[in-house]
Design a protein that fits this description.
Blueprint lengths: L12 H5 L2 H10 L9 E6 L3 H12 L3 E6 L7 H8 L4 E3 L7 H12 L5 E4 L3 H9 L1 H6 L2 E4 L2 H13 L5 E4 L4 H24 L7 E5 L3 H12 L3 E5 L3 H9 L3 E2 L2 H7 L2 E4 L9 H6 L4 E5 L9 H7 L2 E6 L2 E5 L5 E5 L5 H4 L8 H18 L7 E3 L3 H14 L9 H8 L3 H4 L2
Parallel strand pairs: 1-2, 1-4, 2-3, 4-5, 5-6, 6-15, 7-8, 7-10, 8-9, 10-11, 11-14
Antiparallel strand pairs: 12-13, 13-14
Bound molecules: 1,4-dihydronicotinamide adenine dinucleotide.
């Protein structure tokens, strides 16, 4: 099969077919080219869905510079394909070391982008820390994940942000679908593919009952697993309880869990005392942004031998003979496993449409530097496009309903 890039197969073809919102954005903005004259830096997991976002930005006039947001989630064929476009430049290679990954970010930032569409605040943190002159020239940014928002909040609190940034992760059109359903399905799918183990009947411990954790826990239970949730927030713990999961602390969960999945966004959630208590054959993985949720240095230190019984699986055998299996080196299990493709394209269609719209909108604002909520009209607009692609219609409030909703007087409303 050939495409406009010659005789190479088009690695984005399948994702493009499943990202109709992007096609509608490209159709709407392909002529007016709102990004014309802007250099847009994109940091994200470099798989096919991100490729479609990059292509759509380019079709809307942007000069795009792209780089990974995780060193191990890059697909080389996608990078090579995009890099062959005029106006799109890769700062990425498959299988980069942590040092090469950081170096790529610094090299990209030296090109002085106007806008930054970020994941994990990888570029926004670095531009402020190491390239202050470049940060001054950035018009605005957008951040797509929870971990990045946490970093941006810290930067905003310190008053160091040099430009306005939209917190895309916090929009309903992002976290209600990407975090809950995307992470939920793709994490469990990749655990199943990597281990070839059945989830039904297993005791699955999910650390953190935020958007990602609740998606994973609910879907694991749907597959027949016995789910256990650990939390530090009493309200989230109660929500997990009322949703039907067993709630306990990690010390107790460690003794009964067969599969552990961390989704907290913080460090050392599963550590030495927990590895000590785990049953033989326990499997551990992480779906949070950074590879710090499972204390791997401690695990390596405790183990007598370390082997690789299967691609994507590292087995730590303890002095007492128990095996503890770690998937994907504790990195994002849905994105860095041997067969990982990340979230389904349909889900990333909404997330990346929000990033596209956030980038387009922030160009036109005169916001002071800081972290901002994405205007509701953009979120609603993406939801409407998505409904259109599903051929689904919804009701319009009638005049009498609007009148009823806005009338608080007891006498008039007939209470
Ligand atoms: P969230 O803030 O909604 O949930 C995190 C939950 O973890 C909170 O309920 C918090 O109380 C809990 N928590 C914090 N410390 C804990 C501890 N020591 N033990 C147990 N629970 C603890 O965040 P969200 O949106 O669920 O994201 C979680 C992580 O997943 C972030 O790092 C985010 O960037 C990442 N993420 C990963 C994706 C993927 O593709 N794998 C997609 C989207 C987000």
């Amino acid at each position: 099969m050939t495409d406009e890039h010659g005789d190479r197969e088009d690695p984005l073809a399948w994702a493009r077919d499943h990202m109709p919102i992007h096609e509608s954005l490209a159709e709407q903005y392909g002529e007016s080219e709102p990004f014309d004259g802007y250099t847009v830096a994109v940091a994200s997991h470099l798989e096919t869905n991100t490729g479609v976002l990059i292509e759509t930005l380019s079709r809307a006039g942007a000069e795009v510079l792209f780089t990974p947001s995780e060193p191990q989630s890059t697909h080389g064929d996608v990078v090579a394909f995009l890099d062959s476009y005029e106006g799109i430049t890769a700062y990425a290679e498959e299988g980069m070391s942590d040092e090469e990954f950081a170096e790529a970010h610094h090299t990209l930032l030296e090109e002085e982008p106007d806008l930054i569409l970020d994941d994990g605040s990888e570029l926004i943190a670095k531009v402020h820390e190491s390239h202050p002159g470049v940060a001054e020239g950035v018009i605005g940014g957008a951040e797509q994940t929870t971990a990045g928002i946490t970093r941006l909040e810290a930067m905003d609190d310190e008053g160091v942000l040099e430009f306005p940034v939209y917190g895309v992760n916090d929009t309903p059109m992002k976290h209600c679908f990407d975090n809950v359903h995307g992470t939920g399905e793709s994490s469990l799918t990749n655990v199943a593919i990597t281990t070839n183990a059945i989830l039904s009947g297993k005791t699955v411990v999910v650390a953190g009952y935020g958007y990602c954790g609740r998606g994973i826990a609910r879907k694991a239970r749907g597959l027949g697993a016995q789910t256990v949730v650990t939390e530090v927030d009493p309200r989230k713990a109660l929500e997990a309880h009322m949703d039907g999961h067993r709630v306990t602390n990690m010390a107790e969960a460690a003794e009964i869990g067969e599969l552990f999945i961390t989704t907290t966004g913080t460090a050392d959630v599963i550590r030495g005392e927990h590895f000590e208590a785990m049953p033989d054959g326990a499997t551990l993985c992480n779906a949070g942004h950074f590879d710090v949720e499972i204390d791997q240095p401690e695990l390596a230190e405790m183990a007598e031998t370390v082997t690789h019984p299967k691609e994507g699986v590292t087995r730590y055998t303890m002095p007492d003979g128990r095996d503890v299996n770690l998937l994907s080196d504790g990195r994002l299990v849905n994105l860095t496993g041997p067969y990982s493709q990340g979230h389904p394209a349909e889900v990333m269609d909404t997330t990346f449409a929000m990033m596209f719209e956030a980038g387009r909108d922030i160009r036109e604002t005169d916001l002071e530097p800081g972290l901002y909520a994405v205007p509701d009209r953009l979120d609603r607009g993406v939801a409407e496009r998505k409904l259109e692609t599903l051929d689904a219609t919804i009701d319009e409030p009638t005049d009498s309903q609007r009148e009823y909703d806005s009338d608080w007087r007891e006498t008039d409303s007939g209470f």
